[in-house]
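User: Structure please.
Assistant: Input sequence and predicted structure:
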Amino acid sequence: MAKKARTPAPPRKVQAPQRRVEHRRGRTAEDRRTLWIAIAFAASGVAAVAIVTAVIFAMSGNSSSPSGGGKDIDQSQLIGLQTGPAPWNVGVDHLPDRLEPLGLTPLSAEGNVLHIHEHLDIFLNGKHITIPTGIGIFPNQFITELHTHSAGAEGLPGPETRPTGVIHVESNRNQTYTLGQFFGVWGVRFTQDCIGGYCKQLTPWRVYRNGKLYTGDPTLIPLKEHDEYAIVIGTPPKKIPSSFNWPQGL
């Protein structure tokens, strides 16, 4: 009788908690899988947000960049600028000192990586201002990426020394140059408010690109192939030029 009383209950009491422990472990593993999936989705969401943010930042950075995408010039670093009334001379006296602030270099010959041409007209009370030949050419020493030649050198009819207003961009680098850099080479003050000795507070002036009024910073206008730039000081001419009669091969 004593042996029958001791044998039945103990095995059931030991096995029951073991089954409950195994069941709890199963739920914990499932929970862990769910947690990892949630973390993975969250991480991908963060990554997506980061990517979108980067794209928006890049786009906003591009939209706030200078309109010409060229070099912003510190006029205070340009030596020998002509700040008086027109006409202005070729401006080579301090040309070597201005090259570094302008981001330009002295070349032994015209560059051949980038070779384009633009035309510049300047009017003072309806009359043309002469744009000299030899801008950006330091005699017998070097030539800059931005310069002017005479009519004969460009294949245009007329005397060899006749100015044309054609800007030559001949560089060993494929990059964007600006109208402000050209005026820096010329040695003529050119800011948003003043050109030479003419400042808008006293003498209104405007800049046109291909016949259309340019309302941005004129110093940052990019020099592009066969563009026509017209700077109108004071009383405008009867017609604002929108193009130039380019000769064949130029």
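The mean pLDDT is 80.
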